[in-house]
């Protein structure tokens, strides 16, 4: 569980107060301000209160937590902060509130007066639901549920994306190349802005003096521009440091560019990069923290341990972090006065800890979420009861092993069981169509809404999901397969995608094979490829120019 006590500012809180925290954000030029929510949905603030950034109505510092009554009843969905600092907060209902430093109109309320209390920002956003927020040093971005980006604030380098360098006092939709695009993720560096669209392309604008836009130049960009160097690469997430950028692809690869004086790009040197450069985590299997023997021996350890599922950076720091599918957390860049030029394996279990312990200042790169220790939600209670023989009234016999379940839950959760168990009084059901790991994962999914399988087993679960017409489970299987694809299993997964008519997965596996064609064609899977599949693969590969010199 995340330990907020690793941030020095929380040393001002009592142990009893720390136990109540459920969300938190540490910010400020020295990490000396914090906002947090409690188990009772109350919002508290603490710290030096520069420019009124605590939202209490004054500029007085406080060494004891004070409740932020002006946001009473509001639940926080996401939060970001600038260098002033200023705060941009979105609620679970999609409303936006801002307060704090406002010399450059970064609060979006049409003035340049510091905001001492949270102000609801509705201009041009009144009919919009905001789902994500991001702050640069003195400018702000928000993303709406329909994929639109709005920006305001300091614009000396075009970071608002309006085409000029005049400051923007109220929210204005970022247009240009983004006008007909659906944006799914946003981020801000000190004076630049980034957006990822649903096709995996990355658009950038603003300051580019360190090459942080990834355009191969150092000229500023006043309107959104697509990063051409990422052509053919589907990006899922983007994260910005002070003057460097990280992106995460759908294949779990990280690319970095921009300022590199502290090694924050993780490429083994301190030279700035104006084009995206791949960042590699070590693949030494000795780093694996899985129990011995390995629980998934058919899933290559190196692939699992090095596939990235999360990237982290913060505009106030020169530090980078990443987490692998195997649970390893790496950091690089500025680290307690040192420059770490290659990804370094830490002992942490989450990227948040990197910024608490290594970054300068010790801030949080996102809104922290703290899970409670004792109270169980309905979902957690159901998860605990899966395969519990003490409460179950039904057991499945699969491959000679029992899986314990509850008839009422199965009927509520699955159409197949709704009909098959309607008049069935038996307490044992024999299952021979699917393997034990696959069927157990299916039943566990009905209790937890999640799956935990290596990609090869997920193929069998995909077969089951197709057979039972469980479309959401089918999507989860495809996602798991995507995360676990490697050169050795790519052809097998492509074959499965074709067999089960998973078109999105088929396209993903095909692109992976093309991007790693030399290695893939040397695997046993390729040598044993079905004749018709091989014929179609070669034909499609030739059409996309895979065999050109």
From the structure above, extract its key features:
23% helix; globular; 29% strand; 549 residues; 14 helices; alpha+beta; single chain; 4 domains; Methylamine Dehydrogenase, Chain H; four-stranded antiparallel β-sheet; five-stranded antiparallel β-sheet
CA-CA gap between termini: 51 Å
Describe the main β-sheet briefly: 5 strands, antiparallel
How would the global form be characterised? globular
CATH class of the largest domain: Alpha Beta
- Sequence stretches where pLDDT stays below 50 over 5 or more residues: 284-302
Give helix % range.
Answer: 10-25%
Taking all Cα atoms into account, the compactness measure Rg is: 25 Å
CATH homologous superfamily identity of the largest domain = Potassium Channel Kv1.1, Chain A
Number of helices: 14
Tell me which CATH architecture of the largest domain applies here.
2-Layer Sandwich
CATH topology of the largest domain: Potassium Channel Kv1.1, Chain A
Question: What does the model show?
Answer:
RCC repeats lie at residues 94-146, 147-199, 200-251, 252-325. Keywords: Repeat. The protein is of the alpha+beta class and 549 residues long. The chain folds into four domains: 1-73, no CATH class; 76-232, Regulator of chromosome condensation 1/beta-lactamase-inhibitor protein II (Methylamine Dehydrogenase, Chain H, 7 Propeller); 236-284 and 306-371, no CATH class; 379-544, Potassium Channel Kv1.1, Chain A (2-Layer Sandwich). 23% of the residues lie in helices and 29% in strands. The protein contains 14 helices and 28 strands. The strands form seven sheets. A five-stranded antiparallel sheet has the order 4-3-2-1-25. Strands 5-6-7-8 form a four-stranded antiparallel sheet, with no helix packed on it. The chain has a four-stranded antiparallel sheet with strand order 9-10-11-12, with no helix packed on it. β26 and β27 (401-405) form a beta hairpin. α8 packs antiparallel against α9, α9 (471-484) packs parallel to α11 and α10 (490-499) packs antiparallel against α11. It is globular. It starts with 14 loop residues before the first helix and ends in a 6-residue tail after the last helix. The model is unreliable at 284-302 (pLDDT under 50).
């Amino acid at each position: 569980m995340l330990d907020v006590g690793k941030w020095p500012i929380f040393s001002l809180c009592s142990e009893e107060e720390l136990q109540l925290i459920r969300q938190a954000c540490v910010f400020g030029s020295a990490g000396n301000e914090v906002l947090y929510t409690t188990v009772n949905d109350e919002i508290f603030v603490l710290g030096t209160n520069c420019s009124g950034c605590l939202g209490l109505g004054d500029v007085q510092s406080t060494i004891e937590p004070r409740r932020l009554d002006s946001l009473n009843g509001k639940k926080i969905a996401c939060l970001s902060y600038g260098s002033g600092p200023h705060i941009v907060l979105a609620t679970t209902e999609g409303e936006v509130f801002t307060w704090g430093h406002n010399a450059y109109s970064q609060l979006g309320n049409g003035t340049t007066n510091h905001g001492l209390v949270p102000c609801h920002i509705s201009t041009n956003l009144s009919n919009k639901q905001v789902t994500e927020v991001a702050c640069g040093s003195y400018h702000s971005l928000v993303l709406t549920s329909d994929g639109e980006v709005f920006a305001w604030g300091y614009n000396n380098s075009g970071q608002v994306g309006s085409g000029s360098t005049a400051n923007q006092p109220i929210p204005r939709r970022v247009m240009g190349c983004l006008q007909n695009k659906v944006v799914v993720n946003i981020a801000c560096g000190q004076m630049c802005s980034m957006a990822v669209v649903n096709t995996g392309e990355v658009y950038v604008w603003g300051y580019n003096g360190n090459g942080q836009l990834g355009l191969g130049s150092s000229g500023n960009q006043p309107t959104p521009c697509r990063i051409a160097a990422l052509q053919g690469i589907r990006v899922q997430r983007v994260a910005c440091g002070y003057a460097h950028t990280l992106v995460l692809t759908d294949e779990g690869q990280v690319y970095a560019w921009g300022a590199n004086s502290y090694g924050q790009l993780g490429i083994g040197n301190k030279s700035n990069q104006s084009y995206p450069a791949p960042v590699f985590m070590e693949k030494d299997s000795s780093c694996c923290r899985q129990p011995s023997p390995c629980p998934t021996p058919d899933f290559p350890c190196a692939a699992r341990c090095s596939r990235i599922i999360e990237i982290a950076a913060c505009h106030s720091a020169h530090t980078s972090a990443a987490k692998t599918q195997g649970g390893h957390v790496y950091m690089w860049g500025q680290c307690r006065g040192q420059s770490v030029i290659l990804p370094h394996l830490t002992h942490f279990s989450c990227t948040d800890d990197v910024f608490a312990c290594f970054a300068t200042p010790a801030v949080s790169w996102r809104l922290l979420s703290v899970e409670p220790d004792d109270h169980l939600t309905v979902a957690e209670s159901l998860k605990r009861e899966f395969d519990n023989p003490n409460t179950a009234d039904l057991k499945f016999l699969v491959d000679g092993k029992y899986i314990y379940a509850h008839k009422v839950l199965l009927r509520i959760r699955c159409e197949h069981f709704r009909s098959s168990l309607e008049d069935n009084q038996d307490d044992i059901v024999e299952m021979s169509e699917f393997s034990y790991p696959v069927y157990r994962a299916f039943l566990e999914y009905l209790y937890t809404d999640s799956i935990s399988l290596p990609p090869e087993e997920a193929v069998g679960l995909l077969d089951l999901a197709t057979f039972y017409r469980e479309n959401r489970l089918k999507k989860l299987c495809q996602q798991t397969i995507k995360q676990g694809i490697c050169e050795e299993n790519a052809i097998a997964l492509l074959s499965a995608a074709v067999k089960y008519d998973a078109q999105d997965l088929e396209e993903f596996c095909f692109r992976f094979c093309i991007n790693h064609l030399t290695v893939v064609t040397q695997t046993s899977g390729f040598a044993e490829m079905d004749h018709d599949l091989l014929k179609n693969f070669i034909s499609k590969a030739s059409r996309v120019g895979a065999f050109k010199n």
